[in-house]
Amino acid sequence: MYNLLEPRLQPVPLASLRPTQMTVGMIEVDRKRRQWLDHVAANGPDFLGSHMIPVVLGPKKVPWLIDHHHLARALHDEGVEHVLVSVVARLCDLRKTEFLTFMDNRNWLHPYDAKGTRCDVTDMPRSLGKLTDDPYRSLAGAVRQAGGYAKTDTPYSEFLWADFLRGRIPAKMVAGKFEKAVNKALEVAHGEEANHLPGYCGTF
Fold first, then answer.
1. Domain 6-132 falls in which CATH fold?
2. Is the distance from CB of 59 to CB of 94 less than 8 angstroms?
3. Which CATH topology does 135-194 take?
4. What is the pLDDT of residues 96-108, one digit of tens each?
């Protein structure tokens, strides 16, 4: 997906990170929060050291988060103030419009709302706390965890799965009977209709 240029050993304020997507799956965020709480007492610093956040430095040297949005949001919600980052690219000299165009063309932006509708790149949230919930992103993450498809380096692959499932699993099921939705989505994920998606594992 990207090549790391420079790990920054100095902590970076979590609040300074700009998201490059509009939504997260809050169920997955909650899972990341529980994972963090399991580690924080015993090895919190080691956990953060092994989960450096990849960023692109944009105009005014603002760090734009290009992966691990769920972990970053979970840490934000738990009150963590600093994280370690890895700098993937330095685009500080670009104008804002040039920067956003470059990021969009590199597939480092995902300006799609919770309905899967593309929005203007200028509508991207300015902080982690402004990321909104897309239940189908949670569903896609749960399906992968259950073996429905493989993890890949394709950017935003789980959003592709979320959009695929959005038209096939009823929203009421996702909202009210999540485990049932996961089981139904597993069947769909292994079907022939999904064979174009990254990480597709084939039929049962």
1. 3.90.1530
2. yes
3. Helicase, Ruva Protein; domain 3 (1.10.8)
4. 999 999 999 999 9
